[in-house]
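Lecture 7 notes: from sequence to structure.
We start with the chain below.
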Amino acid sequence: MNTDKIYAEQLANEYAPKDTSKVIALRKLDARAKLPATVFTYSFGIISALVLGVGMCLAMGQIGIGTPSSFVLGIVIGIIGMVGMGANYPIYKRILENGKKKYAFEIMELAKEISGN
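Predicted structure tokens for the same chain:
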């Protein structure tokens, strides 16, 4: 199997002009299926990282009054941020899977039309 030839064809197809509206429609459907998962992942990840940062600042005494209760509160808030960041990827996979299920039939039909099968 000539992998160089396959790679060259794949690269040429990627750079070839896509004038057909079906290919553009297929790309738009693919983007529509993936967009909610991507937006949620970035938003939730940023918020979780900020929550972790606030917890760290409280625990180190950079914000707050520096008492033992603010230290404990900072640790609790930091753990909440870590749990959010840890749960981000599984949630992303589930949202992406649901988006793909929602548009799977349309994408498959359009792909079959384009490929000629």
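Points to note: The first helix runs from residue 3 to 15. The helical segments are 3-15, 21-60, 68-115.
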